Amino acid sequence: PQALRHELYLKKSKNIDLNPIHNGGWTTFMLTCGYGQQDVVKCLLDLSGTKEIDLNAKDNGGWTLFMKNID
Fold first, then answer.
1. CB-based contact 18:51 (threshold 8 Å)
2. Region at 52 (left for phi over 0; alpha for psi -120 to 50; beta for the rest)
3. Which among 25, 23, 20 is positioned nearest to 63, based on CA atoms?
């Protein structure tokens, strides 16, 4: 399955930047959540402790992904 390929790729990659800032200050984690890529989001969450993925990064407006999704 594709999710397994993503996970294997991310686990084996040593020089991949998982916290790049895109337009609007969005990170890879924010974008994958925004586009509904559930398998990739799960993989990033699983790897967040070992790959130093910033789950609390703020966009250009100072909002985190979690802040944006609170009702």
1. yes
2. left
3. 25
| Phi/psi of residue 58, nearest 5 degrees | -105, 145
pTM of the model: 0.72
Distance CA 37, CA 42 (A): 9
pLDDT digits (tens, 9 = 90+) for 18-70: 788 888 899 888 988 888 888 888 888 888 877 788 889 999 999 998 898 87
Give whole-number Cα distances, 27 to 1, 23, 34, in Å: 25, 9, 11
Are 67 and 31 in contact by the 8 Å Cβ rule? The answer is no
How many CB atoms are located within 10 Å of the residue 15 CB?
Answer: 4
